[in-house]
């Protein structure tokens, strides 16, 4: 019996016992095909034997619906290196067991491409501590920084990923509370919309047409872009930076003019500037519009089915969205009445001053 025939017989008898979660599909001298379903990440392994086998390593091909092609190519290289360690001997069971253990020990392999994309988004200047991987815990730690501001978040990748979205936990930041709440809430909403069909589907679409998409990169990229942009945003009224350069100078008293507010269109205002703008004429019938010269890329508009923003963010497009905020819900008539009363009081004071002169 040749070593190839011996190995084929060995694989038939031992494979499903030696390699957990494996199932033999085909086992001949021409082709060995095995399915390995580890952590709900099924991989189909096709092994062919070269003419000079076992003096030459086996040829491995991998297929998967959940793992990316880049990751599979990297895993093929590792498998072939493992096979080279056993030249002149049987190789299949060693390679199959190695592959099963590698996927088990690296659960983040399911989001390999997304992690690479995040590294690219962060740029070459990013320090290693800004993106950490915890393979045993299946978590990704993001520590986004911009100037003196930071935002930290732990993303837990579930076993059913990408059918289930990432779980964002332990958020920490030195941004104002209103921006912290926005980042926490919107990043979770982006992740959710990647895996759950909306209640109102586009015309002609059914829930069956919706397909979950990976959510790790979309959610963390949103956090990364936001923390980098917030310190650079200017108040549309006064034109000065909305946030102070030093986080220690942040105004925490929500009754002060320097307190930072975020409105539904996404722009940041100094509270004093926003109050002044809302209280001065003109008072349009449908309410005041945001005076910003262009629309904000992170407004409270809805996202589409795949977690992408649907807002038109052309640089030449003025904001023009109605100014709205939970703390200032004032209709046009009330605003005009308050303005008239204010002007009347000012005229009265001017008359008194003139009389005293």
TrEMBL record:
It comes from the Eukaryota. Residues 6-106 form the RWD domain. Gene3D superfamilies: Ubiquitin Conjugating Enzyme (3.10.110.10). This is RWD domain-containing protein.
């Amino acid at each position: 019996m040749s070593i190839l025939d011996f190995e084929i017989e060995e694989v038939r008898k031992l494979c499903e016992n030696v390699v957990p979660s494996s199932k033999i599909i085909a086992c001949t001298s021409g082709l060995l095909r095995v399915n390995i379903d580890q952590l709900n990440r099924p991989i189909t392994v096709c092994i062919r034997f070269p003419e000079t086998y076992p003096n030459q390593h086996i040829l491995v091909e991998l297929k998967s619906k959940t793992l990316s092609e880049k990751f599979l190519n990297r895993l093929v290289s590792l498998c072939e290196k493992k096979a080279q360690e056993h030249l002149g001997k049987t190789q299949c069971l060693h390679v199959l067991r190695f592959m099963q253990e590698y996927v088990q020990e690296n659960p983040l392999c399911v989001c390999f491409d997304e992690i690479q994309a995040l590294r690219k988004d962060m740029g070459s200047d990013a320090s290693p501590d800004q993106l950490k991987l915890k393979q045993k815990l299946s978590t990704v730690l993001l520590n986004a920084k911009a100037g003196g501001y930071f935002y930290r978040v732990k993303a837990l990748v579930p076993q059913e990923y990408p059918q289930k979205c990432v779980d964002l936990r332990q958020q920490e930041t030195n941004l104002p509370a209103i921006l912290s709440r926005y980042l926490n809430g919107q990043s979770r909403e982006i992740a959710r919309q990647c895996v759950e069909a909306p209640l109102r589907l586009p015309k002609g679409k059914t829930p069956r047409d919706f397909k979950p998409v990976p959510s790790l990169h979309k959610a963390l990229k949103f956090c990364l872009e936001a923390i980098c942009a917030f310190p650079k945003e200017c108040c549309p009224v006064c034109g000065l930076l909305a946030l102070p350069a030093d986080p220690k100078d942040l105004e925490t008293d929500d009754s002060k003019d320097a307190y930072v507010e975020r409105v539904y269109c996404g722009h940041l205002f100094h509270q004093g500037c926003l109050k002044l703008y809302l209280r001065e004429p003109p008072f349009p019938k449908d309410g005041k519009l945001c005076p910003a010269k262009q629309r904000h890329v992170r407004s409270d508009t809805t996202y589409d089915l795949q977690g992408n923003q649907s807002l038109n963010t052309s640089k030449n497009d003025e904001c023009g969205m109605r100014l709205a905020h939970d703390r200032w819900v004032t209709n046009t008539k009330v605003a005009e009445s308050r303005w008239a009363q204010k002007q009347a009081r000012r005229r009265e004071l001017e008359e008194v001053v003139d009389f005293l002169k």
